Amino acid sequence: MTKRTDDHSICLISESAEATERVGSLLGSLLCPGDIVVLDGDLGAGKTVLTRGMARGLGLTEDVASPTYTLVFEHLAEDSAATDLFHFDVYRLNDADEFLMSGLDEYFDRGGVCVIEWGRKIFDALPASVIYVELSGVGPEREVCLRFPEGDEERCARLRELLSHSEGIRV
Ligand SMILES: Nc1ncnc2c1ncn2[C@@H]1O[C@H](COP(=O)(O)OP(=O)(O)O)[C@@H](O)[C@H]1O
Ligand SMILES: [Mg+2]
Questions:
Q1: Which of 14, 54, 58, 85 has a Cα at 20 to 30 A from 77?
Q2: CA separation, residue 7 to residues 91, 146, 150, 166 (Å)
Q3: In what order do the strands lie in the sheet with 113-117?
Q4: Would the pLDDT of 79 be above 70?
């Protein structure tokens, strides 16, 4: 991914795990049923931390853990103000075919938000319009780059505005 900020991408520095969770929460508050968020970045980069924030932003209260032994965790909304979250970790899959053979793409049409850790591995199985997030770094500071699909510039601008007022985040 090109590391530049334009009208459909944002690159920021998160100064702590709490700040990364805040990024997730702000992003989550702008997500709609049917959105797919692909998370890329090495082990320990902060993909699950970011997802925990997204769950909060979607109005969910359940804790988000790493789906290490299952490929997908379902977090179902308990009231109409919240949105379902389907949290995938496809690290153990080899490719898009394996994903499709398991029928996991059926989740894309279930009216929730899908967040896919290691989504790059199954990129060919994904629809064209995904929100792509790449996390990098190992110390307390992490770089987070978000890219919205073509035509989604308004949501990107709203997120940038929210992030610019947030503690521990340097846009
Ligand atoms: N700025 C930061 N953003 C995210 N995580 C951070 C940050 N600084 C330290 N950490 C730590 O890095 C780890 C990230 O773990 P996790 O989210 O499970 O990674 P992944 O899901 O990408 O493998 C956590 O232990 C978290 O506390
Ligand atoms: Mg993880």
A1: 14
A2: 30, 11, 9, 20
A3: 72-75, 85-89, 113-117, 36-40, 131-136, 142-147, 9-14, 169-170
A4: yes
Q: How far is the CA of 101 from the centre of ligand 1 (A)?
A: 31
The CA 18 to ligand 1 mean position distance, Å, reads 9
Domains and CATH numbers, the chain: 9-170 (3.40.50.300)
Ligand 1 contacts (CB < 6 A) are 14, 16-17, 20, 41, 43-49, 66, 117, 140-142
The band of 6, judged by pLDDT with boundaries at 50, 70 and 90, is confident
What confidence tens digit (pLDDT) does each residue in 97-150 have? 999 999 999 999 999 999 999 999 999 999 999 999 999 999 999 999 999 999
